[in-house]
Each structure stands twice: as C-alpha cells, then as structure tokens.
Amino acid sequence: MVSDFRRKKLMFMFKFLDKDGSGSIEKKDFQLAAEKAAKEAAEKAATERGWKEGDALYKECFDTIDMVWDALQKVGDSNSDGQVSAEEWVTMWDTVSKSAADRDWLDKYCKFIFKMQDLNGDGFIDSDDFVAATSKSGNTKENALEAFKKLAQGKSQISLTDFQKLWNEFFTTEDPNAPGNFITGRPSFD
C-alpha cells in the first residue's frame, strides 16, 4: 500500500511527465519532453555539449526517451491501451519498489537525468547545475536551493553514485524526511 505522502510525490512526477495534460502518460508526452529539452539546450547555447540535431547527446536524449517509454509501457500499462493512467503509475511504482525486476530502464533513465542536470559536464551536480536544471520546469531558485541543501546533505556537489541512491529513494521511500524526496527541486509536494 502506498502512503498518502508517497502518492503525492508520485503524482507530482506523473503530472510533470504528462506534458500535454491529458491525464495519462503516453509516448507523445516523452517526445514532447525530449523536444523541449533539445530546444531549451539549443536556445541556451548548449551546442558545445552536443545538442545540435544529429550530435551524440541529441540522439541519446531521444533514444533514452524511447527506451524509457517502451519500458514504462511494458511495466506500467496494465490494460495495454498505450497510456499509463495515474492509478497504473502508482501501482507500477508500488510493484517496482518491491522487486529488483524490470529496473534496468530506471537505472538508464537515472543516468540520463544525471547527465542532463550536470550542466557543466564535470561528473557532479552542484547547486548551480541543480537550480538551472530544475528551474526549467517552473521551479523557483529559492525552492531549488532549499531542496539542493536537503538533497546534498551538507556536500557541495552530488556524484552519480549519490544521485542513483537519491533517485531510487525518491520513488521508493515512505519517509517524508528522506533526502531523495528533494530530487525534483521542490521542498514539498503540497
């Protein structure tokens, strides 16, 4: 059974991924997210990171989005209608948190998100990276800084290994005080 707190944060992520606001997550939501990420990166002169169409990072973005959608649909779309409803989403995370199966896609997605948030490409996410990355989704700088402090637990930067633990914790923990809860840059889900 998923607690009210965990349901709130899972629904926060669900709404974030439901890019067209249809009330379900579909492949087109992931395509819209990839297109938006590529456009924002290009607009911010991030082409030196390989964001031009046809470059490796650009291709990786779309390939990862396709892989995540395919896995999400396989694991979460219980009625095979090509969409993941809010209830299917919550049920999927309840199942995933209790099993090591079907987690390869989640690890790849985590590594990709880390790479997207490591804006300077140094192998770490610092507060500047985190604020810039999470503000793209409408977050405030103040919220992002508060969340980063909780997430980083006194460190000035987050390694991939730390990020992987925090990522897993976000989706699985029922503990409202767990550091992984702040991975979205929000200090709360109310």
From TrEMBL:
<feature type="domain" description="EF-hand">
    <location>
        <begin position="5"/>
        <end position="40"/>
    </location>
</feature>
<feature type="domain" description="EF-hand">
    <location>
        <begin position="105"/>
        <end position="140"/>
    </location>
</feature>
<dbReference type="InterPro" id="IPR011992">
    <property type="entry name" value="EF-hand-dom_pair"/>
</dbReference>
<dbReference type="GO" id="GO:0005509">
    <property type="term" value="F:calcium ion binding"/>
</dbReference>
<dbReference type="InterPro" id="IPR018247">
    <property type="entry name" value="EF_Hand_1_Ca_BS"/>
</dbReference>
<dbReference type="Pfam" id="PF13499">
    <property type="entry name" value="EF-hand_7"/>
</dbReference>
<dbReference type="Pfam" id="PF13202">
    <property type="entry name" value="EF-hand_5"/>
</dbReference>
<keyword id="KW-0106">Calcium</keyword>
<protein>
    <submittedName>
        <fullName>Calexcitin-2</fullName>
    </submittedName>
</protein>
<dbReference type="InterPro" id="IPR002048">
    <property type="entry name" value="EF_hand_dom"/>
</dbReference>
